[in-house]
Design brief:
Layout: H1 4-21, H2 25-32, H3 36-44, H4 51-60, H5 65-74, H6 92-104, E1 110-113, E2 119-122, H7 124-129, H8 144-149, H9 161-178, H10 182-194, E3 213-215, E4 225-233, H11 240-243, E5 246-252, H12 255-266
Antiparallel strand pairs: 1-2, 1-5, 3-4, 4-5
Helix pairs in contact: 2-3, 2-4, 4-5, 9-10
Protein name: Helix-turn-helix transcriptional regulator
InterPro entries: Cro/C1-type_HTH, Lambda_DNA-bd_dom_sf, MLTR_LBD
Pfam family, one: MLTR_LBD
Length: about 270
């Protein structure tokens, strides 16, 4: 049986998520296959939704599955989505798939991170471009955005640090607004303090669809690396751990970078 306080907590949480997603009660009702009146009653605490209705509303609002579990708990129900350690034998096929993706992306850098940007796994390409970074920044847990923008990390080698830093900050800020956590908000604040002033105009080297990472080689005889990034996640995962994993893959923006990365990794 759901208590009055639990119902109020669930109502408040659903209102918060709906407001965050900028969805009206009517639109949410249409998405979830119910009525606006029912949604209104749930959000006011006058109606107690069943377990399946909470899940439908959460899915309709694209609530991350970790937070869907919290909504269910607030409603007095057991969590619906497991949270398995990545080293658990059950996730061996997932680990194998991730390792194959990282290896298959070579010689280009690629990393697997969690929802806070902490490194889960990386390939030799990422190790190659982060060579020379302060060892403390590469001591687990490794925060990849911090490695990129810290003055003891890659920041001194980033030619277009003003553009790239804000590209990283804006992406993380958007994620913290969409799916807020205290830790992510704290990381955004830290990176804002590290970033140079935001540029007023885009540089001539801007690719139009992405901000390239222009990275000086440690060896002055080697060419500058120009990289673009892609982000991938498991869109249909039903395990919290897997759903929160992100693959960030770096791709060469020109042939010279591709050749330089090949030589760098082989070296």
């Amino acid at each position: 049986m759901i208590t009055e306080s639990a119902s109020a907590g669930l109502a408040s949480s659903l209102r918060t998520w709906r407001t965050r997603r900028r969805v009206s009660q009517l639109e949410l009702a249409l998405r979830a296959g119910t009525t606006q009146r029912h949604v209104s009653f749930i959000e006011s605490g006058r109606s107690v939704p069943g377990r399946s209705m909470i899940i439908r509303l959460a899915e309709s609002l694209e609530v991350p599955i970790r937070e869907r579990n919290e909504l269910l708990l607030a409603g007095g129900y057991a969590p619906a989505y497991p949270r398995t350690d990545l080293d658990d034998p059950q996730l061996a096929p997932v680990r194998t798939a991730l390792d194959r993706i990282l290896h298959g992306h070579l010689p280009y850098p690629a990393v697997i991170v969690d929802r806070h940007g902490d490194l889960v796994s990386a390939n030799a390409g990422f190790d190659a471009i982060t060579a020379g970074v302060d060892p403390l920044l590469l001591t687990p847990p490794v925060c990849v955005p911090r490695v990129l923008l810290h003055p003891q990390g890659l920041a001194p080698r980033i030619v277009n640090l003003d553009e790239w830093a804000w590209h990283v900050v804006d992406r993380l800020n958007a994620e913290s607004v969409r799916n807020p956590t205290d830790r992510l908000r704290s990381l955004v604040d830290e990176l804002v303090a590290l970033a140079p002033p935001r540029p007023r105009h885009l540089s001539p080297g801007h690719l139009g669809f992405a901000v390239p990472l222009r990275l000086r080689a440690r060896d002055p005889e080697r060419p500058e690396l120009r990289l673009i990034t892609t982000l991938t996640h498991f869109g249909t995962a039903t395990d919290v751990t897997i759903a929160e994993l992100r693959l960030e893959a770096f791709l060469p923006a020109d042939e010279a970078t591709g050749a330089a990365l090949t030589a760098l990794v082989r070296g």
